[in-house]
Amino acid sequence: MSTADDNIDDDVSSDVCANCGKGKESSNSLKACTACKLVKYCNRECQIAHRHKHKKKCDRRVSVAELHDDEKLFKQPPSQYGDCPICFLRMPFLITGYKYKSCCGKVICSGCIHAPVYDHEGNEVDNKKCSFCRTPTPESYDVVVQMINKRADAGDANAINHIGNYYEHGKRGYPQDYEKALEFYHRAGELGFSRAYYNIGNAYRIGNGVEVDNDKARHYYELAAMGGDAQARHNLGVYELNADNTYKATKHYMIAVRSGCNESLDTIRKMVTIGYATKDDYKKALESCQSYLDEIKSDPRDKAAAADEEYKYY
Predict the structure, then answer these.
(1) Which residue of 111, 161, 223, 314 pairs with 301 in a disulfide if CB–CB is 3.0 to 4.6 A?
(2) Residue 53 lies in a domain
(3) Which domain holds residue 34?
(4) Pick from 211, 205, 242, 243: which is nearest to 224 by CA?
């Protein structure tokens, strides 16, 4: 038996507010729902008041109407750095939780970087070596840069992105050159390093070496997000929220939370307080956050975080 809720088009009208029923006035154009585009409101207050009735139908409409590109964009991506090559646990989201090793090009979690190094017989040896390839720790940043350049020449996308960073910020002996930075970021992105696309998105958003262009910034954030960059994903949520598209904003934030972005979790919490998201949304976000924490947790990582040690070189 059909119910009013089963008829997903029963609240659609082109000339009245879905909440209060008032029609369009010459001085006040009705505003369409930014998700399904079918329901209209007098103002934001009416939209918020009607959300609890409209959300289920809206979600169903959008799920039917989404294009293939949207389906690809909102697919939960793999972790940007995958698993640690030593402990095989998922890499943490925060940059303090891992390090890029310029000697071998591996990204290793902080727990394994600072763990004891053993020889083939199980004896602890000099700990001032790479946990993966056993190369001695570089004695200066000059040596690090030499290693990174060698890795970049071999096609290491992470190393190429590092050089882009050096140019962007004018460090490690490189002049500040935004155009050169973008050149290296593009090379790294084309080789599959999603963080490079995030850096390009930032350049277009801020205007570093290019004209400010939010459409291009968003495009590169999307490429980064699909590659697993959680910060780029969060930024896409910000774009959608600023456009009053709370449906897509929430989806982006949810994916970012599952990838470890606490900023997105806090944003969802704030959205609940102003009626832009539901308590159920926040509950699901908390569950996703806990799943992520369970996947990255290890005693060596906890000990490294508790020690709060600063290590001088990559």
Answers:
(1) 111
(2) yes
(3) 1-65
(4) 205
